[in-house]
Amino acid sequence: MFSRVSTGVKGIDEMLKGGFLPNRVILLRGGPGAGKTIFSLQYLLDGAKKGEIGLYVTLEEPVASIRRTAANLGFDLEKYEKEKLIGLFDGSRMVYKFGEEIKTSNIQKPLISNTVDQLQILVTSSGANRIVIDSITSAIIHQRFPTDKRLEVLELMQGLRKMNCTALITSESSSPAEEGFFVEEYLADGVIILSNSQHNFTITKTAWIEKMRGIKHDDQPRKYEISDNGFVVYATEPVTA
Ligand SMILES: Nc1ncnc2c1ncn2[C@@H]1O[C@H](COP(=O)(O)OP(=O)(O)O)[C@@H](O)[C@H]1O
Ligand SMILES: [Mg+2]
Fold first, then answer.
1. For residue 69, how far is its CA from the centre of ligand 2 (angstroms)?
2. Which end of the chain, N or C, is more open, meaning fewer C-beta atoms within 10 Å of its C-beta?
């Protein structure tokens, strides 16, 4: 029996009967404002509280903005950053700058290989065993062809699996119809979907575990909210309406 990696969101741990399996790559998909960044912060804070090192690689939201979100929610991010239990990195240069350099120089390595190499250096130097990449959408947006996109996502996920880390990767979209085909959902070990539904002019937010390889999990959508304390899931209440 494998030990579990708690997620930092109590209701999600209940839905997963304990948490993620270690060394897996989990995708967290949701639309804008769904709470992906807050969930990801809670995941790393949960590890930090137990002395586990976590890396947060942001590919679009500035690091300062993430710190502000955390401070507004009363999260101890600053403390754990000082203690080197959480590292926040602006990874946008990893992805975009290399893209430009590749165009203008004779670097032969594909973009994603460079990103994986950079991540490996960060993981090794920090000793992290939890990693967040927020979001994968930014990392693969330059790929026009589905086959290239699939290969990049595959390389990133395989790279992460070798790093001895449990990875949480966010993906930006509220419905599959928005982008057609989500390769990242097929390639990840687990997928958590955050969605909104409207009924009588009331929005209900739900979290649903679409898949989680190797785990017998709750397969129903459950209500969640972003409260003053962060991301909260009501794991035992059925969703009505
Ligand atoms: N201090 C807070 N108290 C309550 N809700 C908040 C607070 N801070 C942010 N939110 C809610 O969280 C949303 C943003 O969450 P975030 O994790 O950044 O979303 P995402 O990363 O999915 O775009 C905001 O749109 C707001 O609804
Ligand atoms: Mg976000």
1. 10
2. N
Identify the helix (H) or strand (E) that includes residue 187.
Answer: helix 183-187
Ligand 1 atom with the shortest distance to the CA of 194? 22
Q: Which DSSP string do the residues of 38-103 spell out, in sequence order?
A: HHHHHHHHHHHHTT--EEEEESSS-HHHHHHHHHHTT--HHHHHHTTSEEEEE-HHHHHHHHHHHH
Which ligand does the CA of 34 lie closest to? Answer: 1
What domains can be seen in the chain, in order of their start residue? 10-238 (3.40.50.300)
pLDDT (tens place) for every residue of the chain, 241 residues total: 569 999 999 999 999 999 999 999 999 999 999 999 999 999 999 999 999 999 999 998 999 999 999 999 999 999 999 999 999 999 887 776 555 555 666 554 556 778 899 999 999 999 999 999 999 887 877 777 888 888 889 999 999 999 999 999 999 987 655 555 678 888 999 999 999 988 999 999 999 999 999 999 999 999 999 999 999 999 887 777 5
From ligand 2's centre to the CA of 30, what distance in Å? Answer: 9
pTM for this model (two decimals): 0.93
Q: For ligand 1, what atom is nearest to the CA of residue 227?
A: 4
- The structure tokens 């101890």 sit at 76
Is the dihedral angle over the CA atoms 109, 115, 116, 121 positive or is it negative? positive
| Residues forming beta bridges with residue 191, ordered by sequence position | 27, 211
E strand residue ranges, 59-201: 86-90, 130-134, 166-172, 190-199
| Tokens matching residue 140 | 């693969």
With CA atoms as reference, report the closest residue to 69 among 60, 82, 78. Answer: 78
